[in-house]
Specification:
The complex is a heterodimer. By secondary structure, chain A is mainly alpha-helical. Chain A is built from 10 helices and no strands. In chain A, helix 5 packs across helix 10. Chain A starts with a helix and ends with a helix. In chain B, helix 6 packs parallel to helix 9 and helix 6 crosses helix 11.
Chain lengths: 247, 248
């Protein structure tokens, strides 16, 4: 119990450290450049506290629940050596962790509201939720595919730069076909997916796999999964935009 | 508040079900430490709910507020002397500075980046410095977010910048030391933390709303993409620099 409390307050301290530079920069700009009183400073401060504690709880929970199970399954499957289950687990891991990613939740809701204002979708609760959920499902699916590809690459030892560069060439081609209103959201969703939840589990999978295979280096092969997870969401959200546009 | 927690329970449930199904049905093993695991998932759910409420109340409004204040006609007139149509892209220099400062500061404090830097330092036998790498990534993110704001203000298409950026990455990849390549590619994704993403998204959308002739949907997104691309360039450049320095 006491250890848990210490761990929890450590997580709160880490979240505070995430927030501190933002507060500092905004404070400097408000005090020296803008020099105007800020309205609702109370509710903003309260919201900041909620962010810190929410994130701390979230990460603390991940550490005692999700990470041990995820890592154990990743290692067990890597030892088992069944390619089919390894691929399925990689896909499910990518999909599951991305659907619950806080940053993606936030950005999907923003994107839905912007789409309403621009008249791309109808202005009601249902259309709004459908748009945000659709976006999240597409991104989650694409991260699942990314991990599948990444595991495939570790198993076959294909060249990472070649695959990544090929992927981005594809992105540029698809961009020219996509409706302009989806392009910004698509490009952003690449960076959004890879934060709190996904990175530690994905790294565990990659490093676990690379260290249980002969002739693979955990440093060069274990990393690189995240690069795939930043690429495929762009491609799939663009395709999603094209599909929505034509259907 | 309760509604938010309920929503986040719906988001967390699929992950829990998937993991349990794998453990029980595929690996045919019992869940180790079932008690703590369940407590952990309760923390995940409540934490996610609180975090999202906090975002709505603080980071989103703050990002938009900064965008509106820094592009306020009165503020721009005071700092540049230009008004209305005579404003050119250079007049928004406080926006670029603010964006770059946010990008630089949040990245420098990012714990994930510290861990990666320490690992990279030991693997490279000291050729890649801990602080060197961290500053390289932070400069990359700062330049990226600043340039992203420039793009929103002038309204150029996002994919021109991204395509040009990746062209630079391809050329650099061919020239950079092999060891740094996967590290550089990953550092693009790792740097944008859960706290930073909502803030710079709100900043971009606020800018697109505040600058005349820009639409949030067409121009407002893209800052996160810039923040993910430029660290790759700066880390590759750092690797090339480290090699050059080693030779002389």
């Amino acid at each position: 119990m006491k250890d848990s409390l210490i761990a929890l307050s450590k997580d709160a301290l880490f979240s505070l450290r995430d927030l501190a530079p933002i507060v500092l920069v905004i404070f400097v700009f408000q005090a020296l450049v803008i020099r105007e009183p800020v309205h609702d400073i109370g509710s903003i401060a309260l919201g900041g506290l909620l962010v810190v504690f929410g994130l701390a709880f979230f990460i603390f929970g991940l550490r005692i629940a999700l990470f041990p199970i995820g890592e154990e399954i990743a290692y067990a499957l890597a030892r088992k050596g069944s390619a089919f289950w390894l691929f399925s687990f990689a896909f499910v891991l990518g999909f599951g962790t991305t659907i619950a990613e806080p940053a993606l939740l936030a950005v999907a809701e923003e994107a839905a509201e912007v789409a309403v204002e621009a008249g791309v979708i109808e202005d009601n609760e249902e259309a709004l939720e459908n748009y945000a959920l659709g976006l999240r499902l597409v991104v989650a699916f694409s991260v699942g595919v990314a991990l599948l590809l990444g595991v495939f690459r570790i198993l076959t030892n294909w060249s990472l730069p070649l695959m990544i560069v090929g992927g981005y060439v594809l992105v540029v081609i698809v961009t020219t076909l996509a409706p302009p209103e989806i392009v910004g959201i698509a490009y952003d969703s690449g960076g959004v997916t890879t934060s709190t939840v996904t990175v530690p589990l994905v790294t565990a999978l990659g490093v676990g796999l690379a260290s249980s295979l002969k002739g693979r280096n955990p440093m060069t092969d274990g990393f690189g999964l995240i690069a795939f997870a930043s690429l495929t969401p762009i491609l799939f959200v663009l395709i999603y935009g094209i599909a929505r546009h034509w259907i | 508040m309760l509604a938010f927690v309920w929503d986040s329970a719906e988001d967390v449930a699929p992950v829990v079900i998937f993991l349990f199904a794998f453990q029980l049905l595929v690996l045919r093993q019992r869940i180790p430490n079932l008690g703590p695991v369940l407590v952990g998932f309760v923390f995940v759910t409540v934490g996610l709910g609180l975090f999202l409420v906090g975002l709505e109340e603080s980071l989103f409004p703050l990002g938009r507020l900064m965008a509106t204040q820094l592009t306020d006609p009165e503020f721009l007139e005071n700092t540049t002397g230009h008004i209305g149509n005579t404003l050119i892209w250079k007049d928004f220099y406080w926006v670029y500075l603010f964006a770059a400062a946010i990008g630089f500061a949040t990245t420098l404090a990012e714990p994930a980046l510290m861990a990666v830097s320490i690992k990279a330092n030991s693997v490279s036998g000291g050729a890649i410095g801990i602080w060197g790498l961290r500053v390289a990534v932070a400069i990359g993110v700062g330049v990226g977010v600043g340039l992203g704001c420039f793009r929103i203000i002038v309204g150029l298409p996002l994919h021109y910048f991204i395509a040009a950026g990746y062209l630079v990455v391809i050329v650099q990849t061919a020239m950079a030391p092999k060891l740094i390549v996967p590290l550089a590619y990953d550092s693009g994704g790792v740097t944008t933390s859960t706290v930073t993403v909502p803030l710079i998204t709100a900043l971009g959308l606020g800018l697109a709303e505040a600058v005349p002739g820009r639409s949030p949907l067409l121009d407002g997104f893209g800052l996160v993409a810039f923040a993910s691309l430029f660290p790759i360039i700066s880390v590759l450049a750092y690797g090339q620099f480290a090699v050059l320095r080693g030779k002389t």
